[in-house]
Amino acid sequence: MALALELSDTTSERTPQPSGVAVQSQGDDMETNNGELENECSPFENDGVTNKLECLWENQELIEPLQMELKKVKATGLTTIVEEYETPTVIGDWKPWKIDESEEMQRRDCIAELHKSYREMMRKFDILNYQKMYAVGFVQQNEFQQFQVLLQRFIEDEAVQGGRVQTYMVVKVAKVQKTKPLPAVEQTEEEKMSVKKYLRGEAADLGELQDKKLKGQLAVREELYGKSAQAAAQAEKWLMPSEGGYLEVEGIEKTWRIKQDAIAAEVDILSLRKQFDIVLPDLGPYTLDFSLSGRYMIAAGKKGHMALLDMKNMDLIKEFQWDIKLCKSFQVRETVRDVVFLHNQKLFAAAQKKYVYMYSDNGTEMHCLKEHGAVTKLQFLNKHFLLTSINKLGQLHYQDITTGEMIGNYRTGLGRTDTMEVNPYNNVIGVGHSGGTVSMWKPTSAAPLVKMLCHQGPVTAMAFHSNGHLMATAGMERKIKLWDLRKFEVLQTLPGTTKSMQFSQKGLLAAATGGSFVQVFGDLSGSQEYSRYMGHSIAKGYQIRKVQFRPYEDVLAIGHSQGWSSILIPGSGEPNFDTWVANPFETRKQRNEKEVRSLLDKLPPETIMLDPSKIGSVKPATKKEGPTKQDIEAQKEAAIEDAKKTKLKKKTKGRSKPSKVTKKKQEAIMRAKKPFLEKQDEKVKKKRKRVEEENQLPKSLQRFARKVPAS
Amino acid sequence: MKVKVISRSTDEFTRERSQDLQRVFRNFDPTLRTQEKAVEYVRALNAAKLDKIFARPFIGAMDGHIDAVSAMAKNPANLKWLFSGSMDGDIRLWDLATRQTVCQFPGHQGAVRGLTASADGRVLVSCGTDSTVRLWNVPLPSHAQDDSSDNEAKPLATYVWKSAFWGVDHQENGELFATAGAQVDIWNHNRSQPINTFEWGKDTAISVRFNPGEPNVLATSGSDRSITIYDLRLSSPARKIIMQTKTNSIAWNPMEPMNFTALNVQEKRKSVFYTWVGALLFTYGLRLDFVLYNLLHVSSHAALGCWLLTCYLANEDCNCYSYDVRKMNEARCVHRDHVSAVMDIDYSPTGREFVTGSYDRTVRIFQYNGGHSREIYHTKRMQRVFCVKFSNDGSYIISGSDDTNLRLWKAKASEQLGVPEAVSSIAESFACLQLLPRERKNHEYLEAVKNRYKHLPEVKRIVRHRHLPKPIYKAASLRRIMTDAQRKKDERRRAHSAPGSIINKPLRKRRIIKEVE
Q1: d(CA A366, CA A353)
Q2: What is the dihedral of CA B202, B204, B207, B210, to 10 degrees?
Q3: Cα–Cα distance between A523 and A654 in angstroms, integer?
Q4: Min CA distance, A186 vs chain B (Å)?
Q5: Cβ neighbours of residue A18 closer than 8 Å, sequence gap 6 or more
Q6: Are residues B7 and A246, on separate chains, in Cβ contact within 8 Å?
Q7: Are residues A248 and B1, on separate chains, in Cβ contact within 8 Å?
Q8: pLDDT digits (tens, 9 = 90+) for A185-228
Q9: Tens-binned pLDDT, residue by residue, of chain B (517 aa)
Q10: Which of A275, A412, B401, B506 counts the most CB atoms within 10 A of its CB?
Q11: What domains are there in chain B, each with its CATH number?
Q12: Does residue A140 contact residue A65 with C-beta atoms inside 8 Å?
């Protein structure tokens, strides 16, 4: 509709000039007509032919230049639509469509057919859109007639598509042609993949179900799931506003040889602003954290400098500095080991020398969380509102920041560590230890869910992929390992030592290798085989402390001993944000509303588990089934057969006499039978015993007999 | 080398002017919303809790009668008008929106037993213990509001007949109405005597309902514990079942015209309830006449294959029984929960649920195929409920009780009624209550997640929980103990008897003694 409106607006300005003349081409014939005259004729009227002839002569001086221009158009090659059918004759002045009943009815039929294939429609729409842009270009060049031709085509297409512009335009369609039914759309491999993504796993197997009613209900449910997945895939295909970034090379060029300067030369000015270095040599090294939407960043220098920044406007919102001249409340004259945003940018927590502190965005200290101790690493579970920390003693703390309640306080018992990451898929906390083990924790159990030996030396860094199935760990022994968390198996081992690693939203893995070099690995083949994608080295001697991808942007932020840098990594961020998940353009009102909403949806700590899809599902039956009577019988038969078949040794001194042989065979058979008979005996005895006990009482009193537990 | 990086200009992603709506972008990628199931579960839990918080079903009481309300009738032509009759012979027309009396119809000497309105809503038919049938002209809505001073109507006609009447029902589309008394009489508006009379045995019929789908079929319940089906095209009743207890009231399912429900009265209180025997209502749906005719008389079984026909009955053993008219030897469903006799029953126009009023001072709402009630309504001051009605739009319930009041309830206890649009009168506002689309969508979403997680223990517990008055709670637990004991006793009896000598009759058949053709 918007498209149509725009068109009508642009045209209405121009209409007086050629006095509403419409030009229509069919083969080499050209007709022009006076719009006003034509208005009097109703659509489908055939006796307008005589009028047309008169009009022809009246507007001869107009027509000739028009014809000339049209020829020019044909020569220059306007994108043509093949016109097999008779096209509408004339366009009149722009005014509301007169709807003819019979025509409308036919259109409805067409619409019904067309709705079957949304994709085809959208494709058409794209063509139209393209034509519109083309047309607008022409209007600007003062070539209105050409525009009219285009418009004519647009309207012809409208006739096929149904009355999308019916309130804005008059179309006199000479003959309503029947549209052919569109061919069934075949899904491409890509589409199938995206549908699969939205299906969230396999459909339930209904074949085994006995209950017909339940089966029917579930079948309906499954169909609905399928439809919604299709719809979501279509929406993804057509309605997403942005496309993801990419870096493509030709020939012998390699992506990892491309420097930031080369990228800077290619990208637009907005993106250029995202490439920068901040040099703050005094208070580093710096650690960084981004808010959920990637709009805000907090940087914390080890020696007590903290800064809260708006990355969209490149504003410094608040800075804490170790500066005696400044007001006291602005100082953090302590070591800052880690810093995280809480549920939004209004609150953040900093792990300082002795305690964890919570600050508001204007620099006010809100809380001092003494129970956590001297924390080395902080994480925040934003759906559960849990602030998680690991301290110098290797204790893991979970604190609910809405109620202040300490949900869990567990000793890892594996020593001091500063490697702790959250698995975004299930919010399980992974902790890497100095012994080379990685343990995974949830707030409701004192023992780790998983304890896996990943490295031979201390674990220096780890990262989780956003799909939850991939984990990267780095050890002191110069190895980076990629793990499949569904099977707990190594997928790949890469060389390198790193202090900080992170997966981007699109699955790129950034690792700070070798002190001042950042390497980005990518799953370029799509088979979970990570290889070099990009690299970036900062000045020698700078020690990188933290690498952090900015969510929803193709940006990697690097915190190091001399400040922090921001570089462009094309294809790292999710191009399309969801307003209800994380909105980089959030207003204050939206933020407040979201805070309330997220508090309402706050998850209880029990929902953290290794497989979060278990919630609401049925526990499968655990009862084991023993061998049936037939099975036992068959086993017995087989054993007897075996015993019969065994050949006896030929022995001397009368010991192989037939009588002896038969006796021995009988004995062997008895031996084979024995275990089965014993088992049967036991059963019979048990039963007899029970029956005897029951028989001691008259039947009417048996129900009062004490139940003897089966031994 | 080709490079593209994500670059968003603020103009494209924010609104242009401050009057515009904020722009919203969606990305349905599952990896962006982790822990979906947990979030949905929490939302379902919160929705269940909010439902409990907002469950305020009682809208208001309508005060005016000076004796117990004994009968009610809906006006098919007007959504907000309701007729009610009381034990002192007073008949009133209520405007549910303002909850005030529009006009009164004085004349009856004794209790009004039955009330019904004609199909066009212009004529009201009442009958009572004074052996009269009275026809009244219902005022027009505009007329009724104009002259508030003269709000007493005079009867169009008064027909005096032989014996007291117990119930009346009008054809949904037609000129006839039927009265229940010593016999079942069929009347025409213009005749002072019945045009037809049915009798089967000597016992009194206590309630009568026309099937709205088939105007010629009606069902009655009698004091001989019978439920009888009549066809006006025949000279004699068509079919009858005899139950262990008396049936108070019958209602036809409007969407499955062959199904009806009946309510039974407890035997020991028979003397008390004798006068309170309710109504039977058949409602309409598909083309019933041909099929019903077939199934009742011609018995061409092939034609019946796809038809389902149930009657819903309110019964004296505290239960309601749903019957398929084609298969009267067993109930389709037994609806249990009331702890005392069920007095009246009415179907929602959707046919998916029905409301019952009981002698235990509660109103309950059942699913048409649910064994237990979905909802229970009670107030401190509400006494024995003698009549209940679903409003014609299915969103309100009206109950009339011994304490002379009519009460207006919401059919869905926690439903949000919406904000009235700017309208002049309260009456209009009542009709204009509606939700904003976003609110409605949110309600639908919450309903869906609640439905999805309804089996999880916490959600189930909250959704099921109802506060009960102490006497009802105690009576219910006592009944449970009694039924458990009886079941155990039966089991033991069976265990000590020769196999096959004691037949275990299912509950659906237990109350039915025999079927008579």
Answers
A1: 17
A2: 30
A3: 80
A4: 23
A5: A62, A66, A144, A145
A6: no
A7: yes
A8: 566 777 888 888 888 888 878 888 888 888 998 899 899 989 98
A9: 899 999 998 888 999 888 888 888 988 888 898 899 999 999 999 999 999 999 999 999 999 999 999 999 999 888 889 999 999 999 999 999 889 999 899 989 999 999 999 988 889 999 999 999 999 999 887 665 555 545 677 888 899 988 899 999 999 888 899 999 999 999 998 888 999 898 887 788 999 999 888 888 889 998 888 889 888 888 777 788 888 888 889 999 888 877 777 765 443 333 222 222 232 333 333 333 333 333 333 333 322 222 333 444 455 578 889 988 888 888 888 998 999 889 999 999 998 899 999 999 999 999 988 889 999 999 999 999 999 999 988 889 999 999 999 999 999 999 887 655 544 444 454 545 678 888 889 999 999 999 999 999 999 999 999 999 999 999 999 999 999 999 999 999 998 998 888 888 888 888 888 888 7
A10: B401
A11: 34-55+426-459 (no CATH), 58-260+311-425 (2.130.10.10)
A12: no
Residues whose CB falls within 8 Å of the CB of residue A202, separated by 6 or more in sequence, listed in order:
none
Q: How many CB atoms lie within 10 A of CB B517?
A: 8
- The whole-angstrom distance between residue B515's C-alpha and the CA centroid of its chain comes to 26
* Residue A97 in tokens: 């469509």
Sort A446 into a burial class: Cβ within 10 Å, 0-12 / 13-18 / 19+: exposed
Distance (Å) from the alpha carbon of A198 to chain B's nearest alpha carbon? 7
Say if CB A107 and CB A171 are below 8 A apart: no
Residues A312 and A552: beta-carbon distance below 8 Å: no
A701 inside 8 A of chain B by CB: no
Alpha-carbon distances, residue B326 vs A200, B245, B252, B331, B421 (angstroms) = 47, 21, 14, 11, 48
Chain A residue nearest residue B30, CA to CA: A198
User: How is residue A90 written in tokens?
Assistant: 């004339």
For A415-540, strand residue ranges (E) read 419-422, 429-432, 437-441, 450-453, 459-464, 470-475, 479-484, 489-495, 498-503, 509-513, 517-522, 531-537
Which residue, chain included where needed, has tokens 């009815």?
A105
Measured between alpha carbons, how far is residue A708 from residues A693, A701, B88, B360 in Å? 10, 16, 68, 46
> In this predicted complex, what is the ipTM?
0.75
How far apart are the C-alpha atoms of B280 and B252, rounded to whole Å?
A: 7
Q: Which amino acid is at A302?
A: K
| Partner B, chain A 177-216, Cβ-Cβ below 8 Å | 197-198, 200
Amino acid A597 reads R
Q: How far is CA B298 from CA A307, B229, B301, B302, B330, in A?
A: 90, 15, 9, 11, 21
Cβ–Cβ under 8 Å, residues A425 and B34: yes
Q: Quickly count helices (H) and strands (E) in chain A.
A: 14, 31
A700 touches chain B (CB under 8 A): yes
pTM: 0.73
Distance CA B390, CA B355 (A): 7
Residues 89-148 (A) with a CB less than 8 A from some CB of B: none
Beta bridge partners of B180: B167, B184
The H or E element containing residue A118 is: helix A118-140
Token code pair at residue B416: 């949000």
Do A572 and A504 form a contact (C-beta atoms < 8 A)? yes
Q: Which residues of A touch B23 (CB under 8 A)?
A: 579
How far away is chain A from the Cα of B256, in angstroms, using its nearest Cα?
A: 19
In this complex, do B30 and A200 lie within 8 Å of one another by their Cβ atoms?
A: yes
Q: What is the 3-state secondary structure (H, E, C) of A524-578?
A: CCCCCCCEEEEEEECCCCCCEEEEEEECCCCEEEEEECCEEEEEECCCCCCCCCC
CB-closest option in A246, A247, A601 to B42: A601
CB contact under 8 A, A242 and B35: no
